[in-house]
Amino acid sequence: PKKRAASAAPPYISVRARPWGRFAAEIRDSTRGGARVWLGTFGSAEEAAMAYDQAALYSRGAATTLNFPLERVQESLCVLGAMSTGMDGSPVLALKRRHSKRRWRNKAEIANDAATARMRKNKTMAMQERPVVELD
Length: 136
Fold this sequence. Notes:
It holds the Pfam family AP2. 43% of the residues lie in helices and 13% in strands.
């Protein structure tokens, strides 16, 4: 077995270095049967560790092991205003949505977008099927 260099892995809980220079964070969500929840990729190991700490503190409480001092993590949660959970009641998923760069859409928005795309496609096909009269 190969031994990893000591500097290869970030010294933070639940943070992994990516080959392209970014850092990934994930946590196990006890409200979802221990499912692994991807918190995202971050530009620095510290950002990824803070995302993990926020999720861990919010979901497991102050007794959990953190990367940073408890007060620092609590302050960062207050800044985020992360005291409300998501629709499914999972605080980890609520924090994941806060760290996400993309916009989350509900099922109604997705269905509406799909219906709009179908209407555009049908309209385009109808325009292509029109008979063309050539004038000399």
